[in-house]
Design brief:
Number of helices: 5
Radius of gyration: 22 Å
Helix content: 40-55%
Structural class: alpha+beta
Number of domains: 2
Number of strands: 5
Order of helices and strands: HEEEHHHHEE
Largest sheet: 3 strands, antiparallel
Shape: flat
Strand order of the largest sheet: 1-2-5
Strand content: 15-25%
């Protein structure tokens, strides 16, 4: 078990180093390409796009819910639950206006493509 734990520790430390280096590289890419882009360099394709990671402001959504059961249903801040209630018509879309805060987050993908 000691060897197993030693290997686990070793890999965990390596993971931390890799994540730190990837974060530095991510920051450099975002400094170089401040907006969405798609570039190819040799066999590598870089794609940077914005993904919405917004959320509903529950303080604004809770008063709109017609029952205590529904408040319990979305007591865990889960965008999917609120979107499902809107899809089912329990929460009309017009009432939800102003309760969603959008936060665009850059996502970076690098693929190796055959030449």
């Amino acid at each position: 078990m000691q060897d197993f734990l030693a290997r686990y520790y070793e890999l965990d430390q390596l993971k931390k180093l890799i994540e730190a280096e990837l974060e530095k590289m991510r920051r450099k890419l975002l400094d170089t390409f401040p907006g969405p882009t798609e570039q190819q360099y040799g066999p590598y394709q870089l794609k940077i796009y914005l993904q919405d990671r917004g959320s509903f402001d529950l303080r604004k959504v809770f008063p709109l819910l017609p029952s205590e059961e529904l408040r319990y249903y979305i007591s865990n801040p889960n965008n999917a639950n609120i979107k499902e209630l809107a899809k089912q018509g329990v929460l009309p879309a017009e009432k939800l206006e102003g309760t969603y805060v959008s936060k665009p987050v850059p996502v970076i993908t690098v693929k190796e493509i055959g030449e």
